[in-house]
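Hello,

Our lab assistant flagged a job as stuck in the queue for most of the afternoon. It eventually completed. Since we weren't sure the result was trustworthy after the delay, we are filing this so someone can double-check. Below is the sequence as submitted and the structure that was eventually returned. Let us know if re-running is recommended.
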Amino acid sequence: MEDAPARGRRRHGPTPLALLLLLAGAWLRWRALLLDQRLTPDEAFFSTFARAAAVKGDWWLNGPLDKPPLALYANALAQAALGPSELAARIPNALAGILLLPLIYALTRDLYRHYSSRLPYLALLLAACSPILVASSANALTDGLTLTALAAAFWLALRDRPGWSGLLLGLALAAKHQALLALPLLLWAACRCAPSPWPALRRFGLSLTPCIVLLLLWDAARPGIGVHTLAIGNNDPGGLATIADLPGRLATWTAHAAQLFWPGWPGALLLLIAALPVLRVAREATPRSIRQQDCALALFAGAYSLLHVLPAIPLYGRYLLLAVPVLYPLGARGLHICLCRMQNLANLPGRSLRLLLLSILTALLLLQPLPGPDPHAGIDDLGAWLAAKPVATVVYDRWLGWQLGYYLGVWHDKRLTWYPDPEPLARDALRLCEFGPRYFPAPADRDMTPWLLPLQEAGFAVSLAWQQAGHVAWQLDPPWQQESECPQANRAPPD
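-- returned structure --
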């Protein structure tokens, strides 16, 4: 615990070291944003809705959407301002990722205000240089805005601003349903800081309720199936994971948590260090209030993890992002414990910590993982090639989905049809009495034999029409030269 003179010297404004860490984190995020990377399938899904709003004026986001609208509206506004592009679609998350850094600094400072002034710098260092947070700031998914809104809600609750905290949670819910899982954490923070819990809870609820009502009204007024209904259907786990699967699922989740700090064994070590505040060996000389706070944060992280590990749902790394406002303060606490032990053993002056932080920052900036080859390279060229084909050209699809639809362009005039199995494709291809060529694009590494063989047996001439980077396109020519030769055209209509 820091001494009284140290607390007296604490600055209220940002220090040069904090500004340096913020600038380093912002530079990493901006650099990631400017990388030439195609949209992933999920990014293309959300960006298709956003582009339709920006270009066509479809602000109701018509279609099979299972996410609330706030992040998509931010995406659409960016595309409306800068023009439809990958960069515009990703800018809202990049700005949110940069804003997240001072929020991590501020909430760590307020959590441990009476413990040590070093912790905010350590938390900021971990967040600024995290490759996972850097990567998540350069995408067009809904997690970035949700995480920043939740971090702001947590900080405002710690600052005894429950009304504003409820409003920010409402905004987070308007970006992603999973934000509701952070409700226990925010209620704990609001009650922890308020002299009496009930007025704080009332103000929190009065601010949150209008956001939920507006979101429900928007969903009810929107044409088609409701967003919330579709989200429940798409995320239904169908039961709990089996006992035999739990060890593997727990290992996968733990590996994702370690990667929030750093890839590989350094991340696993930092995750272990983050557990130090709740271990008995590191709690002997810690004030009781700090110990209780550490346990509350760890309890939320554990409960949040169980809600993902126990149900039989896919364990994506991005699901852990909503635990960032808890994991980074705990990681800073654990790292501070280790540094204090090292400082005492080596009898180093306190000024050495700043030099150590600068050295670590320099090393982390130099060791930032280089981006690998774009796994979706060439999808834009494939889309442009297909878009140049004649009007109403038939395009069959199995693997490229929303990604191909996005790169065909917002005004494309092709008939794009998705098929899950080869048999329905071959059957419907024979029923379509047209003699123009059709196309079947696919990733280059897919075995196309089960798909192309039934078409060849039906008489279609199959040829490779396009190949570049990681994608191919097969041309399918029907076995008839004019429409009257089609077997379906000569079939008598039913009585």
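-- support follow-up --
The delay was a queue issue, not a problem with the job. The result is valid. Residues 86-111 form the longest helix (26 residues). The longest strand covers residues 461-468.
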